[in-house]
Amino acid sequence: MNQEKIGYLYTATAYLLWGFLTLYWNTLNSVSSMEILAHRILWGFIFVAPLLFFHTKKRQAFFSFVNEFKRNLLQIFYIFVASLAISLNWLLFIWAVNFNHLIEASLGLYITPIISMILSILVLKESVTKGTIISIGTAFLGVFVITFDFGKIPWIAISLAFTSGIYGVMKKYIKVDALVGMFMETLMVAPFAIVFLLFLQQNHQMQFGSDIHFSLLLIGSGILTVLPLLWFAEGSKRISLTTIGFFQYITPTITFLLGLFIFENTITLMKWISFSIIWFSLAIFSFSSWKDKNHTRKKADDLFQAGSKG
What we know:
Layout: H1 3-26, H2 33-53, H3 56-67, H4 73-98, H5 102-123, H6 130-150, H7 155-173, H8 178-202, H9 212-238, H10 241-247, H11 250-262, H12 269-309
Helix pairs in contact: 1-9, 1-11, 2-4, 2-8, 2-9, 4-7, 4-8, 5-6, 5-7, 5-11, 5-12, 6-12, 10-12
């Protein structure tokens, strides 16, 4: 199997798992969202730590980063912001699953690429194409329609999209190895998770330990947090960002279908219209990205051929 196909496999598996994790969080619906998040962080840290320390190069990269602490203060700040953003994103999604807001959560996942693009333009000063502007405008129309239908701002969807977008922007600034970065992200929020779990334990409110079934599921949540991130990191090394852009719609589509057929969330006509507009904006966004990628590749080929002839 060639490297590109391996990349497809890693990336598709990561997004499929992220989509079906909805069912996993639902089995824990009797556990508070905050406790699930705390265990997800803690066991994720426990799982990723040996992966780092048993890998000589990764371990050396981590200690090299720590030894140059003062020089890396800004990098540490970016990692801390990223860890807070992704933790809040996890909490919001778990809460949305446990309180049956899956359709709104899937909307948030669908508009994440658009929000990420807006943040990239505002923060990273990335150039914007006409297709991107049309896509962003169309997405805003879709969000406006669903806001009109709800009678209030869909804060779950917007919060999920923005926290994910902020995480993505921070990752652009973070210049450390992927595994080292993941270890540091979990390391920074692990103390908060431990303190919260100790608080629950002292107040006899912790579900962990009261039932072997729930306890194993909570331990597994950390593993299921780290694995798709590792698979995604491996996949992104082998395939283009444009291709990844198409794969990223797997997760919200699974979430949407689970909300519709398994959890029986109600979808009004206005919601269908809103989602149709969002899907159309994503089609514009994807086509524009694909077209720009092909144009850049053709331009590079033309320059190469011109240089060869010269």
